[in-house]
Amino acid sequence: MKKLRYVIIGLIIGLIIGGFTGYIYRGAPESTEYSYPKGKFTYPPSSDIQVTIVYGFDPEYPPFTQVLPNGSATGFDIDVINWIAKKYGWKIIYKPWDWSTIVDALVRGDIDIIASGMTITASRCEKIWFSIPYYSYVHELVVRINENRSFDNILNSGEYIAVQIGSTADEWAERLLKSGYKFKKLGLNSYVEVLDALLDGRASAIITDSAFLGPYLRKNPDIASKIKVLTTIGPPYTYGIATRPEDTWLRNMINKALEELMNSPEWDVLLRKWNLSG
Questions:
Q1: Which in 55, 132, 172, 174 has the greatest CB count within 10 A?
Q2: Are residues 188 and 256 in the same domain?
């Protein structure tokens, strides 16, 4: 019941934060005047044109997105986008991208969507717009199993706390530093690298999120025995699929497909497949 309450709260927060996203324009007529110029996917393409979507994602954010050693893309979000593409007959071009620059890549047109556990935030909504929320999570301060210090003691230790560069965990670290806590931030390229830094002693703690950590530890129980969640940080957050603000048609189509998928038995199958239902 508590988990369900968090999910509901998170979805409400996501809708509020993403209030100016494409969700509020769902079903708007094509004659609507937009504050943004016409884009690649503002209106429906001609029926004789193959819709090709360049899909940007973090190559190392399991279980949502990951590139395997053989070069193939896998993960929960990969499955979701593939489901949407199959429904509409779209062609998908997979484009792994550095997370710290992925928003700018979407704005420039290097990619057309981001679906990689991307949190709906007010700052991101200044540049990009989101689909309806589809997953809720919380941020966590994680330490090694033998750590006995309190939250305040760790954050005032002057020691390293690791985060993924460009993530909402990175934003939390900056917020905590600005509030007066005294630690050093260790910025790394992925949550997997962040966790490794905690395990090998380069960092005394990490800020991560439950969407990554829970499934990762269920898949790697040996690591689970070496660390613990000291506390959660802040309220629940939600993920959405990011698009350019002007790509109204594309966002509407994604929203329609997401609603259908989330209300079908296939959604629960996907959650179980990627250890996201526990």
A1: 55
A2: no
Q: How far apart are CA 220 and CA 235, in angstroms?
A: 27
Q: Which tokens hold the place of 133?
A: 């929320």
What Rg do the C-alpha atoms of the chain give, in angstroms? 19
278 in a structural domain? no
Q: Angle, nearest 10°, between helix axes 248-262 and 76-88?
A: 110
What CATH number does residue 122 fall under?
3.40.190.10
In the sheet that holds 227-239, the strands lie side by side as 184-188, 160-164, 205-209, 135-144, 227-239
Same domain as 150, residue 130: no
Q: Taking the CB of residue 219, how many other CB atoms lie within 10 A of it?
A: 13
Residues of the chain below pLDDT 50: 1-9, 11-34
What is the DSSP code string of 204-233? SEEEEEHHHHHHHHHH-HHHHTTEEEEEEE
Q: Whole domain around residue 267: which residue ranges?
A: 2-134+240-273
